[in-house]
């Protein structure tokens, strides 16, 4: 794993894009809905509690930005009622949810993932445990659903250097103090790229 922090009460894991793909595939062995749920967290940055909201009716292609956006109703990091935002979706995930919706013959108003938040969290733990067992790699046992969002945010903020305001908007953070914990240390590859000879 890119990084594991077990110094506090909760172990935090940062997964690389390849590790996220491994987790998606592991979850998908128990059903396509599980794979879609992991994609929504690991590639779109959704919280586990947000995964059960969006469906085809919420997904749109922005001609202005040449990007897929979808409505999410989620946590308000300032407190109070849930907040609605437009989240970003990579093309490969948009392709998958379109295929999934067609295969399942979902009504546009139906959610792609129609399960409870505890079920989504359990799916991640089960998929990670399977990987831990298959690879004999105990660190995978510590992976949680929030680690997918943490990995997504850190990858885009630190490795891809997406500006903080964009990430706050698509990730649903109300202020800098809410997103600051995701500004983790860069990987060695990012340090080398940034500091290499020019």
Automatic annotation (TrEMBL):
One of its GO terms (molecular function) is DNA binding. It holds the Pfam family Phage_integrase. InterPro entries: DNA_brk_join_enz (IPR011010), Integrase-like_cat_sf (IPR013762), Integrase_catalytic (IPR002104). Residues 10-196 form the Tyr recombinase domain. It comes from the Archaea. GO terms for biological process: DNA integration; DNA recombination. Keywords: DNA recombination. This is Site-specific integrase. It comes from Salinigranum rubrum. The lineage of its organism: Archaea, Methanobacteriati, Methanobacteriota, Stenosarchaea group, Halobacteria.
